[in-house]
Amino acid sequence: xxxxxxxxxxxxxxxxxxxxxxxxxxxxxxxxxxxxxxxxxxxxxxxxxxxxxxxxxxxxxxxxxxxxxxxxxxxxxxxxxxxxxxxxxxxxxxxxxxxxxxxxxxxxxxxxxxxxxxxxxxxxxxxxxxxxxxxxxxxxxxxxxxxxxxxxxxxxxxx
Length: 159
Hints:
Elements: H1 2-20, H2 31-40, E1 45-49, E2 55-58, E3 61-62, E4 71-77, E5 80-86, E6 95-100, E7 107-110, E8 121-126, E9 129-136, H3 142-145, E10 149-157
Antiparallel strand pairs: 1-4, 1-10, 2-3, 2-10, 4-5, 5-6, 6-7, 7-8, 8-9, 9-10
């Protein structure tokens, strides 16, 4: 009986160790990869929108109605990091490149010529919500001067 019990315990031991698997662990993502995934999603392309409770404020005043239908899509793939924007009321370019500013991976810079371009934009992602914060300084140009101010843009993932 002891021999049967001994073999039974050995069998159980091997059965449990076999079930734990020997698959290698998923490689750890770098801070940059995690930040890219926050903006561009796991697939490498994510659209953020004012739909479902998003808002835009300028200097603390809600101006969401001036940006009806605003969307921004962040794309990150082998070709690089790009973005597209629509209905931005001339605040963002319709497309361009984006890059991280600094090593904390919580700030981006968008290429282009519109007022939000080439400015440091802080971002935070909380589940399916994205917040962008940035300042458009008052320049000499009267058209851009109307867009000058501190912006807070709250967006949700577009499904």
